[in-house]
Amino acid sequence: MYAILDIETTGGQYNEEGITEIAIYKYDGNQLIDQFQSLVNPQIEIQPFVVKLTGINNAMLRLAPKFYEVAKRIIEITEGCVIVAHNAEFDYRVIRNEFNRLGYDFMRETLCTVELSQKLLPEMPSYSLGKLVRSLGIPITDRHRAGGDAMATFKLFQLLLSKDQEKTILKSMIKSDIKQGINPKYLDIVDNLPPTIGIFYIHNQEGQIIYIGRSKNIKKKVLQHFTSDSSTNKKIQKETFTVSFEKTGNELVALLKEAEEIAINKPIYNRISKKNIFAYSLYIKTNIDGYHYLSIDKTDGRKRNIMAFTSPTEGKKFITKVMQNAEIPYFIDTIYEKKSKKQTFDSFSKDLTVDYIAYNALLLYQLEYYNIDEGNLLVVDKGRKIDEKSAVVLEQGKVTGYCFFDLNYQVNAPERIAANLTPIAFNRNNRNIVLNYLNKKFGYKLIHF
């Protein structure tokens, strides 16, 4: 039995959202057998961007039932059902929070149609509900309203069920509430952890750090350690006394801080690999005709690389991105008119994973964006809260530390940076961590100072 649902919320801070609309369709695998739909008065203000997105405003909800007035109906219609939703983790979390405020522990198994679609429809260009159902020819009305989105999710779920005839994939992806498998002694520890990005330290009874990790969601990651059956995690579970944490606001600070803390503390359950985690690097070389070309080789710490990768495939994607941005194929064709392809590639393709020859000036101009070795540089990114930003500081390509600053202040004055800087000890991987981050992530800003 399945309860396919969708909710609309007020928006706002994590775990403080309220439900403004809910729709549930009860499905027995053959037909719909029950349904429920209602606006809900969240008793808090709706964020302006949500009003614009859904069309639901506070005036519309003034006479709507409050959550406690529809709670019994939600329990009844979902009883004995697997909750199915597009991004089920979000909908289930918000509904559980609403019930927690009423003192009721609402627990159901869940199934996410995003994850199920990625498994059964791996070639789709997008897995957002609107784009996905349109690609599949599934009609959708009242987009960003609970009823319309829940019905579209229902029709999508029917399609996915038909593709998984043995139901083996579906059964393997049904999730039980993670707290069901956790030892009660860890519940207090987990409840005090934030569901935000940062690093965490697991301590034993003597206060020693036995494990350091990072995650986009500290609470969720620690729960995984406490519920895992792996031999290492069983040892961690046995020795855990408490968990401390540090919010970092973004992944770059978390990556750098984690590497530093592991190197300093050497926790017994962290594997410290002697291998370079960025085993491949991009170098600029020059062929016999004086043309620059890009080469992906195994990382050589004695040479200055342009970019760092965990695999050759990652390197190929980066080169393709640079070439497309620079419209390099045009220049390659021009070069090929002057000499045969065989002669050109024979000049420099000796056991290299990827080789490209390109027009020198344009190629170097495109790569200049990733040059972190000239002068002093800030990588500005998200902070630990809405009105804050972070900055990772590099001097001549060397990471010196990081700082956080208020959005209302400029941070690129050297004296202000120095006053707020949290130093980071030298680590041979720090430069490559930054390079790889610049390649993979979006939303940061580079500022020279």
Contiguous helical run count = 17
Helix content: 25-40%
SSE class = alpha+beta
Strand order of the largest sheet: 3-2-1-4-5
Largest sheet: 5 strands, mixed
- What is the strand tally? 17
| First-residue to last-residue Cα separation | 60 Å
> pLDDT under 50 segments (min length 5)?
328-359
Q: What would you call the shape?
A: globular
Query: How large is the radius of gyration?
Result: 26 Å
Strand content range:
15-25%
Roughly what is the average pLDDT, rounded to an integer?
82
Question: What would you say this structure looks like, in words?
Answer:
Helices cover 38% and strands 23% of the residues. With 449 residues, the protein is an alpha+beta fold. Helix 11 (251-265) packs antiparallel against helix 17 (430-440). The longest helix is centred in the middle third of the chain and has 18 residues, at 146-163. Mean pLDDT is 82; it is low at 328-359.
Essential attributes:
449 residues; alpha+beta; 5-stranded mixed sheet; 5-stranded antiparallel sheet; 17 strands
What's the short version?
With 449 residues, this protein is of the alpha+beta class. The protein is built from 17 helices and 17 strands.
